[in-house]
Amino acid sequence: MERRSFLSAGGAAALALAVGSPSIARIESDGPVAVVEAYYRRASDAEDAEAFADDVRDLAHSASPLSELAGDAPMAFDGTVRQRFVESVVIAEDLSPDRIRSVSGFLAASLTADGTESIAAENALVSVTVEADDGELELRWLVATDGGEWRLVWPGEPDET
Question: How confident is the model at residue 131 (pLDDT cuts 50, 70, 90)?
Fold first, then answer.
């Protein structure tokens, strides 16, 4: 009986230690899918599009036009704050510079050659399903590392990416 109590207490202590460990939390929160999930989680927690626009800047890749859009036209995120995240999955990795520019005409026009190369260094295309007022939507997010952290680059429709 004492052995069972010891094992239960030891297991609980190990679990509590793991939950509180930054390295364990980092492993679970890193990756291309995590930044997309964070985007929708922050959107649902935001009071309005303007409040959410501040969060967008924190999640955006330095080469992405998202930060500028968030600063200049926060109302562009009105629809996002009403969406509810359902699921996401990585569908492609290591997109070429040409493929990156094909995600969106706006993105292609906004990126410099250095920005495109920065994104091309390590990237992924994430398919995300969200629930909106008029049903489920599927979107694609181009994400890339920036300073070792996964960041948002630009969204697109499934047939555009």
Answer: very high
Q: Which DSSP helix (H) or strand (E) runs through 28?
A: helix 22-29
Q: Quick one: which of 105, 161, 137, 145 has its CA closest to 153?
A: 145
Residue 95 burial (CB count, 10 A): 20
CB atoms inside a 10 Å sphere around CB 55: 18
The helices-and-strands tally (H runs, E runs) of the chain is: 9, 4
Chain centre to alpha carbon of residue 19: 22
Query: Do residues 143 and 95 lie in contact, with contact meaning Cβ atoms separated by under 8 Å?
Result: no
pTM: 0.79
